[in-house]
Each structure stands twice: as structure tokens, then as C-alpha cells.
Structure to design on (416 residues):
């Protein structure tokens, strides 16, 4: 039997080869056949999940909620490198120096990354900004968000904090950060679907042991992950509750 | 059990009030006029059991409340209750979450040192296997315009509640 493994489309292109190496390692140690299928768009991923085609996924927090509550997935591990956070940045020569300087009708550059967008919109709330009173420009990458800011095409941009930190120095120097979130509990998770239910403990044990020798530590480095940390059901449920509070908008 | 506030913990001049806390009884609180600004980018997170007893706080909660984690965990969530908050707001909160729904509103919280901070709070019931096992409360930085609206609204509501008493 072959299983389908995928990665949330928000992964860094620098880590693309790393996921193929990781998939090979997973197959070797587990004795299971995984087919790594990477998708360019979040909409493609949703369709694959809806069709119950996915068995193993490195999921963003937004999708993790749906996978647990609607599709019976179980979280195996999370990266031990800190939580997902968001940054609001402007062009270095922008007249805006704090979020509260932004006004309704602002032009906001964002990506299709749903959890980062959600966190970013929370960071914009103190300025009275919401999805009803801003113009959103959806970009395919964080570099394109940055470019819209340089060109004066957007007033502020929403970045994954890690992606903002990894922008090249010339790009970073043309930007100014207004605020960085410190939410602490929102993570990506590596998750297993119902067809892998009887392999969850074995997979989790092998994953958490990955940092123990130099060779597997190198594989993790290729993913931008220092180590995997085991997670329990309640931790994921807690994050889902928290995400629900952030996305709640009274009718 | 919730002890009265201690004058030694309070910074500057203060006013004294006695709150009648639901399920707890009277608590003497000491209040100054100082507002502590909500820190940018943070979420203040806590969890309670179904009786409103705190079971978990994050580090932002500890920092903003002025209490230690040990003082908070095991205490009723009303340890943060400010006398300027109308009772009706919390009654609405409890009615909503006990129905299994999400509550959202603006809350003025009282710190251990008598100062206060405003939050936009969202409270969600923690439903596990179909049963409510507790509540998670997540606070974020409020828009100032909304805070100003609430200052006026809550003052009217508190005045009406005192008249009815």
C-alpha cells in the first residue's frame, strides 16, 4: 500500500530538496511507501484533503484544525524551533511608524498563508482595520509582499516572522517592522491520517529521535527544523481553540 | 477563596471598593487611576475549569496582571475584576459560554498593583468529546476608539446597577 505525504504550500522554496530527502528517510525507517506530492496552492491542498487523498502532512495551524476536527488526523510532532509568528512591516521610508498610524482604506499586502494572514489581521486591529475596511493584495510569496511595499503599491505587509527574518539583507534594509506577534502557541504540525492510525506511536518515536545522530540531524537541517518535539492531543486542541478565538467575528 | 487586595502591593493613591463576586462573596479591591498600555503583538491567554478557576496562564498574562503564576493558578478568574466593569457584562459572558458559544467583548482588568489595562477578550468553551471541560480566554490589544466607547457605556451600566441595588 502506498501513502500520500504532502507539505503545506507555505514551506520555503529553499527547503524543497529537504522534503524529498526527508520522505526517503521516512520510507526507509518506517518500511512504508510514501509518495511525496507537493502542491503550489492552498486550494489544491484543500481539494486533496477533502477527497481523503492525504495520509501524512506537514500542516499549517489553520489546516491542522480542520484535519483534527473533520478528518480524524493526529498530530505526531511539531518543530522545536519556536512558534509561528507574524510581522507587520512597511517600506523603510513610510510615514507610518506604528500600527495605529495606519487608517481605514489602507492597502495591505498579504499571502495565501491563512494562519499568518489571520495573525497579521489581529496585529492590525488596534488601528481599527479589519477585512471590511482595507484593500488586500494577495501575493504568491513574501518577497512579492516586500516588493509591493518598496514600490509604494501597498501601505503595509503581513509576513511570516521567520520568512521576514530570512529575507536577504538588501530587501530587509528597504523595510521597517512595525510590530511582531508574540503569541507563543501557534505551530505547524506533522500529522498522520486515519489510514496510519496504527503507526502513530512508531512514527512519533522515530521522528523525535531524529536529532540524535549527525546524519538525521542533517536531514532536519534541510527542512529548517532543529528537532521534532512530540505533541499530545490536548496541546493541539488548545491551539485549535485559540485559533477559533482569533478567527471569531460576531455576526 | 480570594483574599482582599493588600495596600502594600498598590502603587500611589488608591480608592477602596468592595466587590460582591459571584460564588465567592465580598472582596476588597484597591484601585488607582493608572492605565498600563497593552503590549504590542501579545496575546494574553488563560484557561479555567468549568467553575472559572484558573488552570493555565501564559507569560503575557502573568506580566500584565502583576501576580505570580503561583498566585494565579488555582484562583478564580474574578481576581482581575475591576469595579468599573458592569456585572451584566460578566453575566452575559457566562450565559454565552455555558451555552457552548463564543463570547467577545472589551474588558477593563484590575492588576495586583491597583492599575488597570483594557483588552479585547474572546472566550471559547473547550469542548472535548462533546462535553465542555473548561474555557480558554484570549485577550488582544483593543482599538482605542472602542475602549473610549466602553468607558462611557460601562459607567452608565454600573451607575444603573448601583441604583437598582
Amino acid at each position: 500500500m502506498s501513502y500520500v505525504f504532502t507539505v503545506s504550500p507555505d514551506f520555503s522554496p529553499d527547503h524543497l530538496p529537504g522534503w524529498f530527502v526527508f520522505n526517503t528517510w521516512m520510507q526507509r525507517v518506517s518500511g512504508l511507501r510514501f509518495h511525496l506530492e507537493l502542491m503550489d496552492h492552498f486550494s489544491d491542498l484543500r481539494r486533496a484533503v477533502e477527497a481523503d487523498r492525504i495520509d501524512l502532512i506537514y500542516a499549517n495551524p489553520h489546516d491542522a484544525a480542520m484535519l483534527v476536527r473533520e478528518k480524524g488526523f493526529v498530530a505526531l510532532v511539531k518543530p522545536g524551533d519556536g512558534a509561528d509568528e507574524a510581522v507587520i512591516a512597511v517600506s523603510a521610508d513610510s510615514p507610518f511608524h506604528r500600527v495605529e498610524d495606519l487608517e481605514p482604506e489602507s492597502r495591505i499586502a498579504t499571502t495565501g498563508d491563512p494562519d499568518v494572514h489571520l495573525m497579521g489581521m489581529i496585529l492590525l486591529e488596534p488601528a481599527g482595520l479589519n477585512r471590511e475596511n482595507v484593500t488586500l493584495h494577495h501575493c504568491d510569496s513574501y518577497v512579492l509582499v516586500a516588493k509591493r511595499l518598496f514600490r509604494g503599491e501597498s501601505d503595509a505587509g503581513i509576513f511570516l516572522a521567520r520568512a521576514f527574518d530570512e529575507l536577504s539583507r538588501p530587501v530587509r534594509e528597504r523595510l521597517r517592522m512595525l510590530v511582531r506577534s508574540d503569541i507563543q502557541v501557534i505551530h505547524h504540525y506533522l500529522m498522520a491520517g486515519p489510514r496510519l492510525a496504527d503507526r502513530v506511536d512508531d512514527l512519533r518515536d522515530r521522528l523525535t529521535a531524529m536529532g540524535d545522530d549527525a546524519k538525521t540531524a542533517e536531514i532536519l537541517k534541510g527542512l529548517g527544523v532543529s528537532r521534532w518535539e512530540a505533541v499530545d492531543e490536548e496541546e493541539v486542541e488548545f491551539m485549535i481553540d485559540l485559533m477559533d478565538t482569533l478567527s471569531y467575528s460576531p455576526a | 477563596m480570594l483574599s482582599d487586595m493588600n495596600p502594600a502591593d498598590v502603587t500611589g493613591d488608591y480608592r477602596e471598593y468592595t466587590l460582591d463576586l459571584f460564588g465567592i462573596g465580598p472582596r476588597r479591591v484597591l484601585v488607582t487611576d493608572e492605565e498600563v498600555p497593552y503590549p504590542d503583538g501579545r496575546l494574553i491567554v488563560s484557561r479555567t475549569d468549568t467553575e472559572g478557576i484558573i488552570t493555565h496562564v501564559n507569560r503575557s498574562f502573568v506580566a500584565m496582571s502583576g501576580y505570580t503564576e503561583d498566585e494565579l493558578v488555582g484562583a478564580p478568574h474574578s481576581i482581575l475584576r475591576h469595579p468599573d466593569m458592569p456585572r451584566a457584562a460578566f453575566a452575559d459572558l457566562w450565559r454565552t459560554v455555558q451555552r457552548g458559544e463564543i463570547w467577545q467583548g472589551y474588558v477593563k482588568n484590575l492588576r495586583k498593583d491597583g492599575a488597570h489595562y483594557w483588552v479585547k477578550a474572546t472566550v471559547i468553551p473547550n469542548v472535548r468529546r462533546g462535553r465542555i471541560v473548561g474555557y480558554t480566554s484570549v485577550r488582544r490589544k483593543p482599538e482605542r476608539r472602542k475602549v473610549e466607547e466602553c468607558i462611557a457605556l460601562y459607567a452608565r451600566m454600573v451607575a444603573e446597577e448601583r441604583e437598582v441595588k
